[in-house]
Amino acid sequence: MxxxxxxxxxxxxxxxxxxxxxxxxxxxxxxxxxxxxxCIVLAVICALTAAWAVNSASDRTRVLALxxxxxxxxxxxxxxxxxxxxxxxxxxxxxxxxxxxxVVGKRTAVDLRKGGLLxxxxxxxxxxxGDDQEQVGVQIKRGMAPAGTxxxxxKVKAVxxxxxxxxxxxxxxxxxxxxxxxVISVSRPDASGTVVVNLAVGTDEGPILATRAALNRVAxxxxxxxx
Length: 227
Hints:
two-stranded antiparallel sheet; 227 residues; 3 helices; 5-stranded antiparallel β-sheet; 7 strands
């Protein structure tokens, strides 16, 4: 005889759970507002970045820079000078790009390095040479010229120093031979303190000074700058 399954009665009463008709979660509007706020913030950041880029570009200026190394006393050529765009800075005063044609041919007062900005103080006044002058480079050892005071345009006397074995000049006696000259440029001192001073002298005195310089028999005396 087969057993028959009895139906389980459906619970009734207050403890019976009520099943919802749908299980879809309610829409959370707070999330949508957070996304909108994030988009607004990003848009503001992009706008500020664009404004900063435009202002930065407008603050840049075209100036002169060095395309290669140039030693002191050398005349600048067009190939030595290039144009660079830099941010405006009150602490710097580089020459504007429009001055390129006017600086070509001028001599440098100091050694210049590739990539540096070209300043007015880097150039010797004029070319340093007149129509009746020659340029002579004189190697000056430490103690044979005023230390650190020579500058382009200074008037100096290139004094002939005694040769080995010669008597030193006495005070009140005959003054040693000297040549009036103008400083064109002064190089940086080397490890021993020696510098090369380019001097402008008269055409009749250039060969004489060059000979004395080759014998290391030249000392420089700077004349008062008020003269």
